[in-house]
Structure formats: C-alpha cells, structure tokens
Amino acid sequence: xxxxxxxxxxxxxxxxxxxxxxxxxxxxxxxxxxxxxxxxxxxxxxxxxxxxxxxxxxxxxxxxxxxxxxxxxxxxxxxxxxxxxxxxxxxxxxxxxxxx
Length: 100
Known about the structure:
By secondary structure, this protein is α+β, with helices and mostly antiparallel strands. The protein has helices at residues 9-18, 70-73, 84-89, 93-97, and strands at residues 23-27, 33-41, 53-57, 64-68. A four-stranded antiparallel β-sheet has the order 1-2-3-4. A hairpin with a 5-residue loop joins strand 1 and strand 2. The two termini are 23 Å apart. The relative contact order is 0.15. The model has no long low-confidence stretch (mean pLDDT 80).
C-alpha cells in the first residue's frame, strides 16, 4: 500500500500501526504463512521511546499476541503475486505452484 511506500522507517511503523485495517503476512520458522492483524506500537512514546510492534494471530478469545521485529515488519520488499484470475483457474496446489 501507499503507507509502506514512505522511505522513512519511523513513518512506515506509524502508518502500519495506526491503520485499523492493516493485515501483515509473515512466514513462521517452518516457512508457513501467518496472517497477523491489528498491529500496534506499544512503544514510540516519550516514556517508552523504543518501538515495540505487536500484532494478533487468530480471532476471538483464541487470538494471541506476537511481538514483531519492526524493522522486518515494515521492510520494503519486491513481492510479486500472480493475478487472482490465474490462481482461481487452477484446480490443484501443483497448478498454482506452476504459475509464473
């Protein structure tokens, strides 16, 4: 999104953590994709100047908080995703993996 296009890391942290609809995708230690939502900066204040970014994994009472490395959470990357129509046209996981 445009919120992450900013070149200043501090502003990117602020943009992500102040957006109520922000969703982050991350890979866990096993390489599985996790969807994190409701990111918040628990620092970045005069009394707690160091950013401490956390987000929720899961929904409802089962949701858990995960602390994020804010440098990686807002790192600019070049991500290329196939068009949704191409993904939708494939019937199997192997077919989706073969999409360029």
